[in-house]
Amino acid sequence: MFHFSIKHIFKFTLTPSRFLVTHSARAVHRQNNILHGKPIAERILNRCKNECEQFNEQYHRRPKLVAILVGGNESSKLYVRNKQRIAEHVGIAFQAINHLMHIAPSNLIDTINRLNNDGTVDGIIVQLPLPLHLVDKTENFIDAIRSDKDVDGHTTSNYNSYRQTSIPPITIPVVAAVREILLEINEPLQGKDVVIIGRSKYVGTPLALMLSQSTTASKSSLISGATVTICHRDTHLNNLTWYCKNADIVISAVGRAKVVQHRMIKEGAVVIDVGISKSWTDKTVTSKNFFVGDVDFDEVKRVARWITPVPGGVGPITVACLVSNLLELARQRQKNK
């Protein structure tokens, strides 16, 4: 169970105006109040497939993505295989480099530098998490990737663009996935109260920066102008419940099974579940549905107006956005040659 104390609550406030609920189109991607990610991902991937064909015709090569995997983490292997399957489906050349668990840090840096200098490589991924002896150097490995090959958007230069510009050159895929979901819902975010559970560097914090930026800077009221509250492990449970209960949108990204209960969600709220974790004790979970989200889905869907499932919600869109990033990097690199 989460333990919360009220040490830090961050608020990003841009406008006091209240949100007026409007109902929108594109219900093809929704089943009752469940917003599935697969149709949105397919739309992005179909566009990417066309763009990949155009790239190949123009430059006589396929865009190339390389994933570096260290050790034998089964979940990481699964994620890399999934990325490979989808990348190759749209016409992207994919290479997985598997290093042994006990690789020296200098050897991993050498691999990254070799890929940086390879003109046929357009994007590089270091699959996380890394083995324990490398974890404290994670940011060093990420920053070794050239920013123009940083398909995850994790390098310091790309990450800092969230604070410096309205639209970063490459959006972190999971952040882009939440953006796509909000665009799909197609209701103005301006003036709404948004709670983000989780303050991680690559999810919670950039999400807060994106959703709280001015509508003038972002040029879209669908993904900006919100009053954003970040809750986290130092937020007292009673306060977490209060913030969520008063939010128009709740986005959870902590990787703790069913931390968001139906009593925490007000009637008609939008709930986006970014978290995913294995369920070892839930008797309702079958072998086909071994992973669960942060949200108690079956209960919360009774009160939420829109809710994303786990699996099948944010995940497929995230991979599609990664592929979209790769194509954008490939085009930019060709233009700069």
TrEMBL record:
Among the GO biological process terms of this entry, one is:
tetrahydrofolate interconversion
Q: In which pathway does it act?
A: One-carbon metabolism; tetrahydrofolate interconversion
What are the record keywords, sorted?
Hydrolase, Multifunctional enzyme, NADP, One-carbon metabolism, Oxidoreductase
Classification via InterPro entries: Aminoacid_DH-like_N_sf (IPR046346), NAD(P)-bd_dom_sf (IPR036291), THF_DH/CycHdrlase (IPR000672), THF_DH/CycHdrlase_cat_dom (IPR020630), THF_DH/CycHdrlase_CS (IPR020867), THF_DH/CycHdrlase_NAD-bd_dom (IPR020631)
Q: Which domain of life is it from?
A: Eukaryota
Reactions catalysed, as given in the entry: (6R)-5,10-methenyltetrahydrofolate + H2O = (6R)-10-formyltetrahydrofolate + H(+)
Q: Which SUPFAM superfamilies match?
A: Aminoacid dehydrogenase-like, N-terminal domain (SSF53223), NAD(P)-binding Rossmann-fold domains (SSF51735)
Q: Name one GO molecular function term.
A: methenyltetrahydrofolate cyclohydrolase activity
Alphabetical GO CC annotations of the entry are: cytosol
Every copy of the Tetrahydrofolate dehydrogenase/cyclohydrolase NAD(P)-binding domain together lies at 176-333
Q: Does the keyword RNA-binding apply?
A: no
Name of one Pfam family that matches: THF_DHG_CYH
On subunit structure and binding partners, the annotation says: Homodimer.
Q: What is this protein called?
A: Methenyltetrahydrofolate cyclohydrolase
Name the species this protein comes from.
Rotaria magnacalcarata
Ranked from the top, the taxonomy reads:
Eukaryota, Metazoa, Spiralia, Gnathifera, Rotifera
